[in-house]
């Protein structure tokens, strides 16, 4: 079918001005990591982003289906190709480039140079890739949004050339290779700094995951669909705010959302109560 961009984003009116919507449309997004990044990619396309590069070397596994943007029929397929197909079913006019491979320090320059905004959801077990991507984005003056699921919510950080760098935030050498650095020790230290602010359930799960990985045992941490959807919503909101030149919290500050602990309750009962005749006089 023929799809006009104006029809796709029609209901964004009132939240996105014509100028902002045009900026969204022309902004080139790099989605580094297409696990959690697959959810962010869909939210971005539905918001009106039309130029997206996907980078990941992984294939879809059954355990991905509880929280990532894939179907049972995608199991065994390359994530980037399955995701590209999904996104083009939403907007056939989008330009979606799929790179079936990992982002590494040696190729990060090209990926960052061809993007305007970087979304980092690379598995933190690949510390060299994460640092290489952040280093290159900083050199080229690109913003990086880095996020992960936090139980029934999310944690997201915005890195700009003017903010604290990834290396500074996590106590890494300010330059040079990070090969041989312990990603587990690095994240244990970061976790301890914010543990008291995290939902207790997530903190317990994370402590166990880090303890297991410290013993050199692979231990993918449990994650929920709600956390993935929440992460997508927060990251795309931050991306749009950056394009609108509106403030976003910059690293070391972070956005922490806990839907299970922050759901407000209200009642419409008063709206149905019989009017008080005295009050109406």
Unreliably modeled segments: none
The number of distinct helices, counting runs of at least 4 residues, comes to 10
What is the N-to-C succession of helices and strands?
HHEHEHEHEHEEHHHHE
- Please indicate the percent range of residues in DSSP E strands (runs of 2 or more): 5-15%
Helix content: 25-40%
Distance between the termini: 60 Å
- What's the count of strands? 7
Strand order of the largest sheet: 3-2-1-4-5-6-7
The CATH architecture category of the domain at 9-164 and 223-259 equals: 3-Layer(aba) Sandwich
Gross morphology is globular
CATH class call of the domain at 9-164 and 223-259: Alpha Beta
User: How does the helix and strand content classify structurally?
Assistant: alpha/beta
The largest β sheet comes out as: 7 strands, mixed
Gyration radius, rounded: 21 Å
On the 0 to 100 scale, the average pLDDT is: 91
CATH topology of the domain at 9-164 and 223-259: Rossmann fold
Instruction: Give me the CATH superfamily of the domain at 9-164 and 223-259.
Output: NAD(P)-binding Rossmann-like Domain
């Amino acid at each position: 079918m023929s799809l006009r961009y104006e029809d796709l984003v029609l209901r964004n009116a009132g939240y996105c001005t014509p100028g902002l919507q045009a900026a969204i449309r022309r902004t080139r997004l790099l989605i580094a990591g297409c696990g959690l990044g697959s959810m962010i990619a869909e939210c971005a396309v539905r918001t009106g982003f039309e130029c997206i590069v996907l980078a990941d070397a992984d294939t879809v596994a059954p355990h991905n289906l509880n929280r990532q943007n894939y179907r049972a029929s995608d199991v065994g397929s390359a994530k980037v190709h399955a995701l590209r197909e999904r996104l083009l079913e939403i907007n056939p006019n989008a330009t979606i480039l799929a790179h079936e491979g990992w982002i590494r320090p040696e190729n990060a320059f090209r990926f960052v140079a061809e993007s305007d905004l970087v979304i980092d959801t690379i598995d933190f077990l690949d510390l060299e890739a994460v640092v290489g991507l952040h280093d290159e984005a900083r050199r080229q003056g690109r913003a990086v949004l880095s996020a992960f699921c936090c139980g029934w919510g999310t944690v997201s950080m915005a890195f700009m050339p003017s903010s604290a760098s990834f290396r500074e935030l996590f106590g890494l050498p300010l330059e040079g290779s990070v090969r041989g650095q312990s990603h587990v020790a690095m994240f244990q230290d970061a976790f301890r700094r914010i543990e008291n602010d995290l939902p207790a359930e997530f903190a317990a799960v994370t402590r166990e995951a880090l303890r297991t990985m410290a013993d050199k045992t692979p231990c993918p941490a449990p994650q929920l669909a709600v956390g993935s959807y929440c992460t997508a919503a927060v990251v795309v909101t931050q991306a749009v705010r950056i394009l609108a030149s509106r403030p976003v919290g910059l690293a070391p500050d972070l956005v922490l959302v806990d839907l299970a602990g922050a759901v407000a309750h209200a009642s419409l009962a008063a709206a149905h109560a019989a009017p008080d005749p005295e009050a109406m006089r």
